[in-house]
Amino acid sequence: YPLCALAVSDERPVSTQSTWARAVLQVFEDYQASRTKFVQTVAELAMRPQNIEALQNAGVMQLLRPLLLDTVPSIQQSAALALGRLANYSEALAEAVVMNEVLPQLVYSLSEQNRYYKKAAAFVLRAVAKHSPELAHSVVDAGALDSLVDSLSEYEPSVKEGAAWALAYIARHNQDLAQSVVDAGAVAQLVLCIQEPELALKRISASALSEISKHSAELAQSVVDAGAVSYLAPLIQHPDAKLKRQVCSALAQIAKHSVDLAEVVVEAEIFPKILTTLKDLDQIVRKNAATLIREIAKHTPEMARLIVNSSGHAALIDYINESKGNARLSGIMALGYIGAFSDTLALAIIIHQGILPLKDALVNEPEDYIKAASAWSLGQIGRHTADHAKALAQADVFRKLIEVFADQRSSPDLKTKAQRALKGNPSEMYSPSCFGAATPRYSG
Fold first, then answer.
1. Which of 20, 39, 93, 162 could disulfide-link to 122, CB 3.0 to 4.6 Å?
2. What is this structure's pTM?
């Protein structure tokens, strides 16, 4: 009997202790559920611009920051996602993220946490870096570049994509930031990413290479040295329009700096493939393709002749005829560069009726900078011989140039371009006194 009594008395404390343990655990579970609900709700609210000011006034930054170090991974991810959406909204909020010393935590987590958190952390870094060079420098100063470059070799494609996107936003601002990205070893990894099968990763990697290349010949050379051109060039014919936009842009940013870099692009056998993209259904693809041709055409007579021998001048003429507004500009300038090099190249443009779309842009485009480009190109084509100038005169170009020059609403640059186009053509085609009132004087 005493033994039974003893056994009963031992059971009661165990039962009571278990109840207390469950009660304590319930408190922690409730706390975790509350934190989860809070960060998820804030992340959802941050998607709508009308909520941003209220969230900021409520001190949301200070509340989210400690949750980046939460013991629960899903809470960390939601906190990072909310901060990214806030920083993405405005420069002021991105500055608030920096001021609250969030970046060092994110950089640390990029190398330590799971793939979902890495993706969210890269999103925050991108959202901060995009606004200004100063904020991008803050991201670099926090040591983000090494972690982002390491993320480019992750197995998960979405992590690679987020890292490439952040690097693109850092590099876009200026040469120093782009150089920092290159020095961190990003270019070789981005070239590898272009070769991955995921379409989104190809797009953003090409975009990042474009942002790096645009600043200087040295940076473009670093992209070329990594073998990027040989992987970019075949993608000109890819069926995805968004990828073709970035590929044409990247090649144009490489080709624009020097003859040597342009030759690398040409040697990748982009002609005549690039000419088919001038007929692409996507307007931005067509525009970027015209820009690429322009950046190649401007360098040497040999490159301009290569374009003409590929019937590129005819394709450009069709492109200008079929385009309106700013989209025309690259095609207009490309014809000017081609026509400037020799009378033979200019004559090829004249024979293919290239003067008429240039005249149309001069007369009908509302923006003066497009009119000025047209006046310049017409001047380059007509300046070689009396026969070239006669072709302009027969198209009534000189009178239109005079009208543009005399128009009080014309910008100084447009007036200058029109005047130079007139003065640069053989004098027997028109009288210089026509700047006052007379009409062009035709010869023959």
1. 162
2. 0.85
